Amino acid sequence: MTDGMSRRGLLLGAASVAAVSGCAGGGSDGVGADGKVTVELWHGQADTARKALEKLVAEFNRTHPSIHVDAGGGGVLSDAMLQKVTAALAAGSYPDIAYIFGSDLASVARSPRVVDLTDAMRDGPTPWTSYWKPVRDAVTVNGQVRAAPAVLDSLAVVYNRKLFRRAGVPFPKAGWTWDEFTAAARQLTDSGRGVFGTGWPGVGDEDTVWRLWPMIWDLGGDVVAADGKHIGFAKQGVRALETVAQLARDKSVYVDMKSGSEQMYQVFLSGRMAMVPTGPWELPDIMTAKIDYDVVPLPSYSGRPVTISGPDTWTVFDNGSARSRAAQEFVRWMMQPAQDVRWDISAGSLPLSTATADRSQWRRHSAETTGLHVFTDALRTARVRPIHAAYPQISQALGEAAVSVLLGRDSPKNAVDRCADKADAALLIPR
């Protein structure tokens, strides 16, 4: 993954969809006088991920003399890419490829300028069935593949072994429960030393929300009910937020009120947080901080393995047949195991396919990175958020509910009732 949890921020609402849906056509076909096709890539990456991507783009350009990928980046970070792309589509001047969060794909895919990649992906050099199910689900809208997978992650719990030993609390094991998690957080909290049992993002954005979905799914709920007109977690959301409320009552949770969760992670990296639900992107910083850590799967209510995966995408836009074909060739090249493994290792992501996971480079990297295999193994049972145009509004409503409970301002039942009122109204809006 790129740049830690910053990529989970900013979910923009349905107002952007109207602009996307009625956009004008793109620019020229992109074929130069020398016959070379130029592809414009807006990637929004920064720091290590940007350097890794630029290196791969340079290699692609060397090995594909008839195509030149311009990796200018788009001028914004990935958090703001939806807004940038929406404005570009409305103006009729948009890139050939853009990095789009998986949770935003349904909104963007309503544009007629988004290229249908069904044939390109399913008939690509890497068998479609070798990609993890969360990858396939995250780019499929109404049975069509509307984007190429870019990065992949999953959630697990990273814990500080030193703090567990000091508090005399046994290390967590796979199959543990949320009751065991809250009890451990309570035991591990030491206000005198400024130590918290765990942390939770408290902004109310997607970073706050997506940690709740595994809890809701485990309880038998879903994001949208089968009738498509109501949320599917009216009861299960209450139970999940009761767990959050227990952490708040125990004062065992550090609530990070700044977007990006950087403060929460800094508390963990400074040795003052015992457990943090996070993804593989955070492991490089944890190792740099020399934390004595390990990784365990998320707790559950049922004892069954459950987690969430949040794949993000390379979405291709139609700027003419030559540029579209060239853009598809680039994203398919990026997905091949030889390139994917290098991108994953550099960007802190997980392998997109079992073929990548079987490569010697990945196996060596996994063996050298404590706990990384836990995140990869979790992909076998991971789920993704639905590709639904109303998802941003549902997420916003649940985020507000979660924050009100984290801050002790409301009961889980009242918070979910208000969430249902807002989210159900969004589901009734014609799409």
From TrEMBL:
Database matches in SUPFAM superfamilies: Periplasmic binding protein-like II
Pfam families, per database record: SBP_bac_1
Q: Which residues cross the membrane?
A: none
Taxonomic lineage = Bacteria, Bacillati, Actinomycetota, Actinomycetes, Kitasatosporales
Which CDD domains would you find in this protein's record?
Answer: PBP2_UgpB (cd14748)
- Kindly provide the name given to this protein in its UniProt entry: ABC transporter substrate-binding protein
The coiled-coil regions, if any, are none
